[in-house]
Design a protein that fits this description.
GO terms for molecular function: RNA endonuclease activity. The protein is an alpha/beta fold and 349 residues long. The protein has helices at residues 54-60, 147-163, 177-183, 196-207, 264-268, 282-292, 304-313, 326-334, and strands at residues 6-8, 11-14, 19-21, 29-31, 46-50, 66-70, 75-78, 81-87, 95-101, 104-108, 130-135, 167-171, 192-194, 216-217, 231-234, 250-255, 272-274, 296-302, 317-320. The chain is built from 8 helices and 19 strands.
Length: 349
Amino acid sequence: MVSLLQSTQRGLYCPVGDFYVDPRVAVNRAVVTHAHTDHARWGCRHYLAASPSEHLLRMRMNDDAEFEFMPYGESVTVGGVDVSFHPAGHMLGSAQVRLEYRGEVVVVTGDYKLGADPTCESWQPIPCHLLVTESTFGLPVYRWEPDEVTSGQINQWWRESRDAGLCCVLYGYAVGKSQRLLAGLDPSIGTIYTHGAVEKGNEAYRRTGVKLPETVFVGDLDRKHNFTGGMVVAVPSANGTPWLRRFGKVSTAMASGWMAVRGARRRRAVDRGFIVSDHVDWPSLLEAVRSCDPDTVWVTHGYTAAVARYLQENGRDAVAIDSRSRSESDEDRSQDSDDAPSEDGADDS
């Protein structure tokens, strides 16, 4: 199995096919699970990814990069290795990478979540010999409510704030999280406004065919525009900046898996915290491992040691690996992780 996939300083490497899966640095050939910038590294020469991620990847990468996109479920042979992409449920175009060589099957989940999401295709279990799973929220304290519950909470906060003469400002990462939040908003409550980085992501989603409610880009409006009763979807880095002054009296909220931890809302200096994550929670991670039923599990991106130890104690061959540098992983947690900051200054969440 080691000959098919190796954990290296540059990322997960397939020596047989001579390519990296979600490399940590610029490489010649990158197989990419999704368009967040800690998985799709800028500067690679050739990118292979799932077709639904095309607009997002082209939006973020250098113009002279070579791209190849494949529909979910189709296979291409790279250096003798059969490579295919399968829905991961994390965001638009997110994929698990399936590698097969001489009867051995490896699956790299990238970032993923279980359950339905109107903005992307749902995760699918893939039987394999080796499963590489993330563990961003790999502790029992992290358990998510269904989307309809959290969307209902957010819309209720919006109604109450509108009736109190306030403007709502809801923070979520520009690409992925914000579009999922938008899909759950009730436009009958008021006008939905967007930060520029969020609107840029909306454009890519809409071009791919994802339906989102009508939004108004804040930058297109006069400085004297009255935002009372509206909902502004913005990136976390906008919190506490002069940009907020234009909205008048506001109520602020963060949508994040980290809101499950006591004190997170206070540290973020927001009025409300909604527990919304695009990663697997604790029970979903365990369900994913059971469903794929691998011989071996590699645990990465998060609480690797804790998850590996739990799996070992329950009869699984599991190993904690570090496919990102410590500074990157720490930065993920501090920024509400899905990933590292993007080039437009937005925080992943």
